């Protein structure tokens, strides 16, 4: 281990890079196993067809979730692992604004992430945790605004 403290942000980042490289090299095997494990596709030739077709949206989502979850395919907050519930979350919030700027939605967003070699700042969340996070960020913003108003009233 290059870093003693596993929670060191550099350690997390380096671990993510390692997983990402591993993923890129072993993409087909990983996707094949995952698809079979979840019983998403039961027929072997169909799995191969899906996996060999890079444009397919299902694979694109699977791949993006796989990269950002370090291969665990789980929500980082609660461990939810059902693929339809999972999506990519902007760690610092502002995801919607970002997507609007890029005019991206759904699959196009996944495609954009892949084209940009999976940039940092994103993580995998389930729909529930995404709501919880949105709520938390919203109330944090309200608190900051309130704090500024209180300071303004005090004339600070
Ligand atoms: Zn969750």
Structural class: mainly alpha
Number of distinct beta strands:
2
Number of helices, where a helix is a run of at least 4 consecutive DSSP H or I residues: 7
The coarse overall form would be: elongated
Mean of residue pLDDT values = 77
Notes on the structure:
- With 156 residues, the protein is mainly alpha-helical.
- The protein has one domain.
- It contains seven helices and two strands; from the N terminus they run ααααβααβα.
- The chain has helices at 9-25, 27-37, 44-52, 57-68, 95-102, 107-115, 127-154; strands at residues 86-90, 122-126.
- It has a two-stranded antiparallel ribbon.
- Helix 4 crosses helix 6 (107-115).
- The termini are far apart.
- The model has no long low-confidence stretch (mean pLDDT 77).
- Bound molecules: zinc ion.
- Zinc ion is lined by residues 75, 77-78, 80, 125-126, 128-129.
Helices, strands, pairings?
Blueprint lengths: L8 H17 L1 H11 L6 H9 L4 H12 L17 E5 L4 H8 L4 H9 L6 E5 H28 L2
Antiparallel strand pairs: 1-2
Helix pairs in contact: 2-3, 4-6
The structure holds zinc ion.
Give a quick precis of the structure.
This protein is mainly alpha-helical. The protein has helices spanning 9-25, 27-37, 44-52, 57-68, 95-102, 107-115, 127-154; strands at residues 86-90, 122-126. Helix 2 (27-37) packs across helix 3 (44-52) and helix 4 (57-68) packs across helix 6.
Q: What key attributes describe this structure?
A:
2 strands, 156 residues, binds zinc ion, single chain, elongated, mainly alpha, two-stranded antiparallel sheet
